[in-house]
Amino acid sequence: MEFLVPATALAGLEAAAPGGEAAALTELAWQLRQRDSRRALALCDQALAGPGLSPSLRARLALARCEIAALLGRLDEAESLLAEARRDPALDGDALLAEAVVAKARGQRERELDAYARAAACHARGPDPRRQAIARAWLAYEQAFAAPADADAAAAEPAAAAFADAALALPLSRRDPARAAALFLRAADAARHWGLLRHALVCTINAGTALQGLGEFDRAAACYDQATLESRAAGWPALIGACETRLGALLKEIGRHDEALVLLGDALASLAGVPPGINKANACAELAQTLLALGRGVEAVGPMTEAIAMYRAAHSTDNLTVNLLGLARALSAAGQVHAALAALLEAEQLIARHGFNALVVGVQEALTEIHRRHPRLAPPPGLVLPNATLHHGEATLAEGLKIVGWKAPASLHVALAEDWAAAGDMGRAYGHARQALALKDGEADRMRLSQTPAALRRGPLPQGADATGTERLLSPKEREVLVLVARGYANKEIATALAVSDETVKTHLKKIYAKLEAGSRKHAVTRARALGVIGVAG
User: Fold this and answer.
1) Of 95, 222, 255, 339, whose CB count within 10 A is highest?
2) Whether the predicted model's global pTM rises above the 0.70 cut
3) CA 242, CA 518: separation in Å to the nearest integer?
4) Which CATH architecture fits 470-531?
5) Which has the closest alpha carbon to 53: 16, 21, 86, 19?
6) CATH of 7-143, one of 2.60.120, 3.30.300, 1.10.8, 1.25.40
């Protein structure tokens, strides 16, 4: 049985399945294990209940169910099914790849990498060129997280291209984000074609992250939208949480901080049953970054420290580097300047070692912030500008302009204008102020998402509603109540304004909370604004 088949081969498998023969049902279930997990499980049940099921087919069904259980977060069940599948020695290589999926879901990185390595070695001894290429490319991709290095982009086996392109994109994410995004999207397309939906979703999220780094917010949101819809349809909690995390990061970056906090809380809730690992680390890290953006640096230290510990355990070098920069900023805000500089030094060493050139901008941003908070720190060697804050601020701009597609935020020019004015150089201050004004209009358009992302549309809309009329999520009277809540009215004031009883107001609020999945008045208002049910002004 093929490890993977292209989408074009599914019609033939579908045509053979209605006969109810165990072999045909098993093969279709196997090829749908990620494409349509629920249907694959139904086919497994049908095959297991029918006649003619050989031990080898039973083992293959156990392997399909193992992979699905791992993606659904049913990890003990996945381990049991893996043990059952291993009763057939002919499945050793495929079972090792399934073990890697289980280990990833458990956050057992060492076990995961070992399983990939043994799978590659096992299939290298076998007769199937496609399995050999896939196992080899999958291992190279996973190893690239720990020690990013340019991979061989040429993949002779088309099914392996999804991993080869992603392995090539990983190191480029911190060097050439535009090219990385294109490679991730190409990898995602290939992965979908070959039935590797989990890998397709991860690559789509990674493409969105690269685009977000370039300020392409609408394109990034489109990537997160697609991944959100597909992960929800699959019912995979780790991927749902990953999508919510990335969109929370996007909302933070475009200034929608309250919505970002709510969505990151949702992400951590989605990941509550998921063992520590990359997805949970990302959610903690983005929560910390949002707290930093809100000026709550002391609160950011805890979740950022937790995230960094998980990145270290997962050997995720690029994520570790990015979040050491965030930790430096959080520690600086908390008054721990020497610890902040130590975190920054480690980040700089990792950047130099792995060629993460795009992150030099983040180093300079962090140093600018640290020197602004702590002006008595020793200045950098060779300082020629009036002070260290200006030195690192101008260096931020210079390093950013080296990155293809990078866009200087207006806030950077505003800060430089203020710093030059404070230093008495009004000519340079005026120059930066002019650039800030020129950027602001275009930046406002760029930071306004063209549509509400899927992760903010919580579940199916009620009967009679549609995706283009989210205001119909609430009844007219419920919307009136919520608008007054947004304006700070108490229940008695709402009752008076709408000429209803207090109990009626409470009934409306209960329905509003249920429909918006909110736990408080503030949460309901934030959720409604995110959905476009009420305006930002209330």
Assistant:
1) 95
2) yes
3) 21
4) Orthogonal Bundle (1.10)
5) 21
6) 1.25.40
